[in-house]
Amino acid sequence: MQMTCISETRFIEICEGIRSDRDLIIKHNPIGSEEEILLWMLLSCLISYLSVTDQETPCFTGVPDANAYRDAILFVLDSRREDRFDAKPHIDRMLEK
């Protein structure tokens, strides 16, 4: 089975899309802090885009916080980046108001 990977360019596009729809995403997903909501959305997009299986999807114990979502995003990206780009600055930019 071939693993789907993501380029830095595509990752940036996803992060920028979430950022541009920030207010709408937050309005319709009142699950936690704004940061948690946006990180949850990014994780969900990555799981779908990369066709991550249930066995590969990170599991959370208790109520996840922003750090748990951020760690899960980096975990999903770890073996699925086409090139070894640093996702952290793109995530941080996505979260800026």
Characterize the structure shown.
With 97 residues, the protein is an all-alpha fold. The chain is built from five helices and no strands. The chain has helices at 8-20, 22-28, 34-49, 66-78, 88-95. Helix 1 (8-20) runs parallel beside helix 5 (88-95) and helix 3 (34-49) packs parallel to helix 4. The protein is globular. The mean pLDDT is 94.
N-to-C span = 40 Å
Gyration radius, to the nearest Å? 13 Å
Oligomer: single chain
The percent range for helix content is 55-70%
Shape: globular
What does the average pLDDT come to? 94
Q: What is the SS-derived class?
A: mainly alpha
Report the portion of residues in β strands.
under 5%
The H/E string reads: HHHHH
Number of strands: 0
Helix segment tally:
5
- Poorly predicted residue ranges: none
Q: How would you sum up the major sheet? A: none
Secondary structure layout plus pairing:
Blueprint: H1 8-20, H2 22-28, H3 34-49, H4 66-78, H5 88-95
Provide key terms for this protein.
single chain, 97 residues, globular, mainly alpha
In short:
With 97 residues, the chain is mostly helical. The chain is 59% helix and 0% strand. The model has no long low-confidence stretch (mean pLDDT 94).
